Amino acid sequence: MERIFASIITIGDELLIGQVIDTNSAWMAQELNKIGIWVKRRVAVGDSWDEIWKALDEENKEANIILITGGLGPTADDITKPLLCEYFGGKLIIDETALANVKYIFERVLKRPMIERNLKQAEVPDVCTVIQNKRGTAPGMWFEKQGKIFMSMPGVPHEMKGMMTDNVLPGLQKKFTLPHIAHRTLLTAGIGESFLAEHIIDFENNLPANIKLAYLPNYGMVRLRLTATGNNKEITESEIKDQFEVLKKLVAAWTVIDTDLTMQEAIGKLLKSKKQTVATAESCTGGYIAHLITSIAGSSEYFKGSVVSYANEIKENVLRVSEQTLATAGAVSEETVREMVQGALLLLNTDYVIATSGIMGPGGGSAEKPVGTVWVAVGNRSIIISQKFNFRFDRSRNIELTATNALNMLRKFIVDGAKS
User: What is the CATH number of the domain that holds 335?
Assistant: First the structure.
């Protein structure tokens, strides 16, 4: 089966100068891949007539589908709509359904008067199929030219996602005969990408031609993703299932979870299954571990709370770390994080606690305790374990790595406790 390729063009000066991060193309690429469309290129251009026109010409040569986001607002720098009108040889007309939508939003939702500029949102080229915007004022536009599809959507992520989900993806599935694509993903921790690759080199080399393995490293973890492509859904799913079972056995020692979940999602799933709770006592991570845990919907079922004991007086007065421990061993020490766990277990009435204390940098280090020195402890009312880490990166990455390793320590602590 011939592959169907897509290109994604994102428009806006704000993307090029880094004022706005492009999350649209990443999300779109994921959703296109799910239905069997391969994203060949992603291109960002500024609010320049010539550059947008050039991008359309170039991507028309590379792909079957060209998806465009941005430049559909009511201001002078939003030039996508008139450009597309000229590019496809049409003229701008008022779409009555889009006009009614604009009026409804201003009169009923925003409750403010419209100006002529707002009414222009309802203008569309007469050579397109209009995709109504259920989440905003700018309609989408579907063009077809010499067997190619061009789809223009708003740059607002919420609005773009609504159009993609309700109209664009179903429309593309009807338009093209697409292969079946299957993914299987597992998450590993505690082993570097290069060592992992060496460990499974024979497995990777012997994969069937239609199954590919991807390594997705991130802050002390590596996701392994198998992707299978085929014309028959049942056969493709069976092939990837068999290979995934082999992979799982090969990396069992480092596997966090055998589905496409984050570390914090995996821990949440584990705690919910045991009907147990966790809390954090954080110094150097400043509440970041608590943030990761609570970023998951439903985490109130298993997360009790956090004490961000950045100052020694909070460690001493709230978590009951002894004055002597802080004076002799110091805030960044095994003794301190173990006492932080003990204090938080009593204070927050929880089953497990994670505690952290370290030197994130760029200053604050010493010869004895350089920047990147971190102590982590996890425990329950029976056992507390602790571990020292020595990270060598900038402040942001040191915090991320501390959080990842702390969460993985908790995961292994819970799992090992269940096995004992």
Answer: 3.90.950.20
Domain C-terminal end among 175, 194, 219: 175
Of 198, 226, 257, the residue that ends a domain is: 257
Separation between Cα atoms, residue 199 and residue 247, nearest integer Å: 11
The token duo for 17 is: 């100068």
Distant-in-sequence contacts of 393-400, Cβ < 8 A, 24+ apart? 394/361, 394/362, 395/360, 395/361, 395/362, 397/219, 398/358, 398/360, 398/361, 398/371, 398/372, 398/374, 399/284, 399/285, 399/286, 399/288, 399/360, 400/219, 400/288
Cis preceding linkage at 362, omega within 30:
yes
The CATH number of whichever domain residue 222 belongs to comes to 3.30.70.2860
Range of the domain at 221: 180-257
User: How far is the C-alpha of 131 from the C-alpha of 349, rounded, in Å?
Assistant: 53
Tally of domains within the chain = 3
Q: What is the pLDDT along the chain (420 residues), one digit of tens a residue?
A: 688 999 999 999 999 999 999 999 999 999 999 999 999 999 999 999 999 999 999 999 999 999 999 999 888 778 999 999 999 999 999 999 999 999 998 888 888 887 888 888 999 999 999 999 999 999 999 999 999 999 999 999 999 999 999 999 999 999 999 999 999 999 999 999 999 999 999 999 999 999 999 999 998 899 999 999 999 999 999 999 999 999 999 999 999 999 999 999 999 999 999 999 999 999 999 999 999 999 999 999 999 999 999 999 999 999 999 999 999 999 999 999 999 999 999 999 999 999 999 999 999 999 999 999 999 999 999 999 999 999 999 999 999 999 999 999 999 999 987 564
